[in-house]
Specification:
Layout lengths: L2 H16 L11 H15 L5 H8 L26 H7 L15 H14 L9 H10 L6 E7 L8 E7 L3 E5 L5 E5 L3 E7 L2 E6 L24
Antiparallel strand pairs: 1-2, 1-5, 2-3, 3-4, 5-6
Helix pairs in contact: 2-3
Length: about 230
């Protein structure tokens, strides 16, 4: 918008606020209206000469700008979760001693087997082993029965039980003797069997949280390194 138009807008705004703009009994004819507006601008903008005022009124439309109020965006409050220290203090992931019984979690194992069957489309005898292996490596293992088959620490070899919790570096396993074992993934090889298919998990290549494995690309060829 030009400076003259801005000045005109400011003048009209002032006259409207002061109640001087188009009072009762204002002229109705075009010439009288022109004379009225010319006088209005001359009174409101004495520093502007007649030629400029005449130029503003000659075959030109003056558009008054409208400035809408800016809407203030309400910031969404982020829900804060517990910190790792708070989770430890609240003992959120601890299993009470009276709940550490193998028989309690057998239904969980049955649910896991059905979940794997659905994931692998039935585990048919003619299914490709590498396809099943790839599915199992990305599957949720809570409820799976696993066995430590190889380890750099001989005391871990032979531990068998249901996975109750999986963390980035360890499995928590409940054995048939109702013992809760914390088995590290590093330097251990685990085997799990379902409907005649046996899969091996190299723990050193499995140092991920359960939620992160679905996007991980695993090499299906095994390695002898623990």
């Amino acid at each position: 918008m030009s400076r003259s138009a801005l000045a005109f807008e400011h003048a009209v705004s002032n006259e409207m606020q002061n109640g001087h703009f188009l009072p009762s009994g204002h002229p109705q004819g075009s010439e009288e209206a022109r004379a009225f507006v010319h006088a209005l601008l001359k009174r409101s903008m004495p520093q502007v000469n007649d030629d400029t005022i005449q130029d503003m009124l000659t075959r030109k439309a003056v558009v008054l700008e409208h400035y809408p109020k800016k809407k203030t965006k309400q910031k969404r409050k982020k829900t804060k979760g517990f910190t790792a220290k708070q989770r430890r203090e609240l003992r959120l992931f601890e299993i009470e001693p009276e709940q550490q019984r193998y028989s309690i979690f057998l239904p969980l194992h049955e649910l896991w087997k059905q979940y794997i069957r659905d994931l692998c489309h039935g585990l048919k005898p003619d299914a490709q082993p590498h396809m099943i292996q790839g599915k199992l490596l990305k599957a949720d293992l809570h409820g799976a029965i696993v066995t430590v088959t190889k380890s750099k620490c001989p005391s871990y070899v032979g531990i068998t039980g249901i996975i109750l919790q999986e963390f980035k570096h360890v499995f928590k396993i409940i054995t048939k003797e109702d013992k809760l074992k914390v088995v590290p993934k590093l330097n251990n090889v685990f085997s799990l069997e379902i409907d005649g298919f046996t899969s091996y998990i190299y723990g050193s290549k499995f140092l991920l949280r359960a939620s992160e494995r679905s996007a991980k690309k695993f090499k299906l060829k095994g390695t002898i390194d623990l």
